[in-house]
């Protein structure tokens, strides 16, 4: 009992955001109910930068909207800082900064007015507004109407609004959308510095190179369900085939040697690729014994983009135009197993039952 | 705190300012027309008007007394019809007979401002409706509502803060503009017309009229706000207004007047209740029933809407609409702008 209480306390401290079995469908007149999120699970620990990845229409934004109280979930459990949502959202909302989807603002307000109105609704002083405008690089454009902002500038303003509250949890939906290369880099550095200062970041993005550099952990979703989750390195490693690429002076001489050693090697341009090779040193030794010297040996690892495309089944196929709903459908989690109801049979000597 | 922020948001928006300027422009047109059609009456004109008014007061006194005596009684007294039953006796009040009634070609404050107030009040009410609709309608497509809900997830707090801000600013603006209008009319009638007898009876009647008129901007503010909140667009309120005017105020009224037996359809329009509230009495008459099968005139079937009935219907209509808007807003998925 005592151990259980301790465990629960530890969970509350380390798990900042937890979603379990989240379901949400929207009713449409033409297509009937459309399932956006179908039993999604997500866990984000304190201080992590967690990537929330998935193809278009897989339910990422709906999940974030449900978490932030903008849409009502049909089923599932959501907790932020250990508080159940949406019931306790008003109690934790001041610890959460968020931007969701497209950065829309009232065009006739200036950037400063936009932030000031939000800030004053919870008593944040104007000084903090100036501070965040400086952080996102909009200091000199603060008095300009938002309608004159570019998409990237509106995105920066959205991030500034999320930072106003000095949040402990930052939820960012496509924060790099519309940003120039310098802006993308600034955004990455900003998130890294926030994470270094203990802010937990949940970020949804399609820039998988950025996610790979930035995130500690990821959750990949497809058609409203979780496909994979874990540390970025582990997720990539889980999809690694162990292929090894070898460069030698005479590949034609090396191929029969490797075949003789029982390896299925094949030539790719000037290289030799040895698939599913768990011990690369074996390749070096085998070739070396026949005086064939290896000048380059690389263990081929997929990047996050490749892993994402594999896991979600959205890799382009020649001659085919994949549709947004063509991604992988993960089977539903097994239903809780219940013991079959025992049937009571009364055996009497007359019924002729087993002796 | 949120109400204060919403008030600031209201004043920061330009649309409120544009609508105020449009109302001022319309007010200026009314005043210019009044000035152009008025002259300062001569001493002879005033003397003639005052003598006519004095004679009218003497004539009207017994009618006023009779009205006060008979209006509380039922429609039939001792087998005879009491045509004064339920009448508003103010129309016979000798104190309300003013020399201004007998001045021609002069705009007078006491005689011309009360009817003008109806025009001006309706103008302000329309401006209030459009401004309130825009205040909330513009928030949806521009993402302002989503941003606000990310900060303030208690939706009812958001709803009533926005509604409160709309009501406070529009009501204050309505009274402010009315004050300016009355002041300018006073100046115009003092300089180029006739002020008239501003006695306590006239003043009491006029203040009551202004307060009744004040209910219109308040009501239409709530209506415009609620429809825009339901439709998530300013255009929703404007479209609803246009559709209502065409289908109900024109369509139903025409059907009610031309198709026998359907006179009651006018009950489904709002204007009878507004007139009932403002003037004190509105009658929906079935003129088709005013002649018997033998061609004899008979009293037509009449539905009377008085001040109480009018106010109850208007209040219920407004409350149902605002209640529906609040309920939908509380439950709505904010999925798209």
Automatic annotation (TrEMBL), chain B:
Molecular functions (GO terms): ABC-type transporter activity
The keyword Transmembrane belongs to this UniProt entry's keyword annotation: yes
Signal peptide residues on this chain, from the entry's feature table: none
GO cellular component terms, semicolon-separated: plasma membrane
Transmembrane segments: 15-36, 116-138, 159-189, 209-230, 242-265, 308-329
Keywords assigned: Membrane, Transmembrane, Transmembrane helix
Name by which UniProt lists this protein: ABC-2 type transport system permease protein
């Amino acid at each position: 009992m005592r151990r259980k209480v301790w465990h629960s306390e530890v969970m509350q401290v380390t798990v900042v955001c937890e979603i379990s079995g989240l379901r949400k469908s929207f009713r449409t007149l033409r297509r009937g109910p459309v399932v956006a999120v179908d039993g999604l699970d997500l866990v984000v620990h304190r201080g992590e930068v967690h990537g929330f990845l998935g193809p278009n229409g897989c339910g990422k934004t709906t999940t974030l909207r449900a978490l932030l109280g903008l849409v009502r979930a049909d089923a599932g459990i959501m907790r932020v800082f250990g508080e159940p949502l949406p019931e306790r959202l008003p109690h934790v909302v001041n610890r959460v900064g968020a931007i969701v989807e497209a950065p829309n603002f009232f065009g006739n307000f200036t950037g400063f007015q936009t932030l000031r109105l939000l800030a004053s609704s919870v008593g944040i002083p104007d000084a903090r507004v100036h501070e965040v405008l400086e952080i996102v690089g909009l200091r000199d454009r603060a008095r300009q109407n938002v309608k004159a902002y570019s998409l990237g500038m509106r995105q920066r303003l959205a991030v500034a609004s999320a930072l106003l509250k000095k949040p402990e949890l930052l939820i960012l939906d496509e924060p790099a959308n519309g940003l120039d290369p310098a802006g993308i880099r600034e955004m990455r550095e900003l998130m890294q510095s926030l994470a270094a200062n203990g802010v937990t970041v949940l970020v949804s993005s399609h820039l998988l190179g950025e996610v790979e550099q930035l995130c500690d952990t990821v959750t990949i979703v497809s058609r409203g369900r979780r496909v994979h989750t874990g540390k970025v390195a582990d997720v990539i490693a889980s999809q690694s085939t162990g292929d090894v690429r070898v460069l030698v002076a005479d590949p034609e001489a090396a191929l029969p040697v490797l075949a003789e050693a029982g390896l299925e090697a094949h030539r790719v341009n000037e290289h030799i690729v040895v698939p599913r090779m768990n011990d690369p040193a074996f390749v070096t030794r085998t070739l070396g014994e026949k005086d064939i010297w290896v000048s380059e040996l690389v263990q081929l690892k997929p990047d996050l983009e490749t892993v994402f495309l594999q896991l979600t089944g959205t890799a382009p196929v020649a001659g085919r135009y994949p549709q947004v709903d063509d991604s992988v459908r993960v089977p539903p989690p097994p239903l809780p197993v219940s013991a079959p109801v025992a049937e009571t049979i009364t055996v009497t000597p007359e019924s002729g039952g087993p002796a | 705190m949120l109400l204060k922020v919403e008030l600031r948001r209201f004043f920061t928006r330009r649309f409120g300012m544009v609508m105020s300027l449009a109302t001022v422009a319309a007010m200026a047109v009314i005043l210019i027309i009044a000035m152009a059609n008025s002259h300062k009456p001569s001493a002879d004109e005033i003397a003639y008007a005052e003598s006519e008014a004095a004679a009218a007061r003497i004539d009207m006194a017994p009618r006023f007394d009779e009205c006060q005596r008979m209006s509380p009684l039922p429609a039939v007294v001792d087998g005879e019809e009491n045509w004064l039953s339920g009448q508003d006796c103010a129309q016979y009040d000798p104190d309300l007979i003013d020399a201004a009634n007998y001045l021609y070609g002069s705009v007078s404050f006491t005689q011309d401002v009360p009817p003008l107030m109806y025009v001006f009040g309706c103008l302000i009410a329309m401006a209030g409706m459009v401004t309130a609709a825009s205040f909330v309608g513009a928030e949806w497509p521009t993402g302002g509502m989503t941003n606000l809900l990310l900060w303030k997830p208690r939706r009812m707090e958001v709803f009533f803060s926005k509604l409160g801000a709309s009501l406070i600013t529009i009501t204050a603006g309505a009274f402010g503009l009315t004050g300016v209008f009355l002041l300018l009319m006073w100046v115009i009638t003092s300089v180029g017309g006739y002020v008239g007898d501003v006695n306590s009876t006239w003043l009491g009647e006029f203040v009551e009229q202004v307060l009744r008129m004040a209910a219109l901007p308040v009501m239409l503010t709530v209506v415009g706000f609620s429809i825009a909140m339901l439709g998530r667009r300013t255009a929703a309120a404007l479209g609803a207004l246009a559709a209502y005017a065409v289908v109900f105020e024109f369509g139903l009224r025409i059907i009610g007047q031309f198709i026998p037996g359907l006179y009651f359809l006018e009950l489904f329009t709002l204007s009878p209740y507004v007139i009932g509230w403002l003037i004190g009495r509105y009658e929906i008459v079935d003129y088709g029933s005013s002649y018997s099968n033998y061609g004899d005139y008979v009293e037509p079937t009449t539905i009377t809407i008085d001040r109480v009935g009018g106010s109850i219907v208007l209040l219920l209509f407004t409350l149902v609409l605002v209640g529906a808007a609040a309920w939908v807003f509380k439950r709505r998925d904010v999925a798209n702008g």
